């Protein structure tokens, strides 16, 4: 039985620890700490970790300390 074809856009994108660190503007060690603590889901590939883009996006959304709408409103009122 054939599986339905998936749109290439639906494929999971995996990021390296370096890519995650660059995107978050933190050190690689900070990313490793997040992965090892379980705060940031990752997949182990050999001796390396790969972080799904969706997992990084969810982590950043859940870690936001400022409501993006409130921040925009604050900028307009300044």
From TrEMBL:
Keywords tagged on the record: DNA-binding
InterPro entries listed in its UniProt record:
DNA-bd_dom_put_sf (IPR009061), HTH_17 (IPR041657), SinI_DNA-bd (IPR010093)
Q: GO terms for molecular function, please?
A: DNA binding
**Which residues belong to any copy of the Helix-turn-helix domain?**
14-62
- What is the protein's name according to its record? DNA-binding protein
């Amino acid at each position: 039985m054939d599986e339905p074809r998936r749109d290439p856009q639906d494929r999971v994108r995996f990021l390296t620890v370096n890519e995650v660190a660059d995107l978050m503007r933190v050190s690689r060690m900070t990313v490793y700490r997040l992965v090892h603590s379980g705060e940031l889901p990752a997949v182990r590939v050999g001796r390396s970790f790969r972080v799904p883009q969706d997992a990084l996006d969810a982590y950043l959304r859940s870690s936001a300390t400022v409501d993006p709408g409130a921040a925009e409103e604050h900028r307009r009122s300044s």
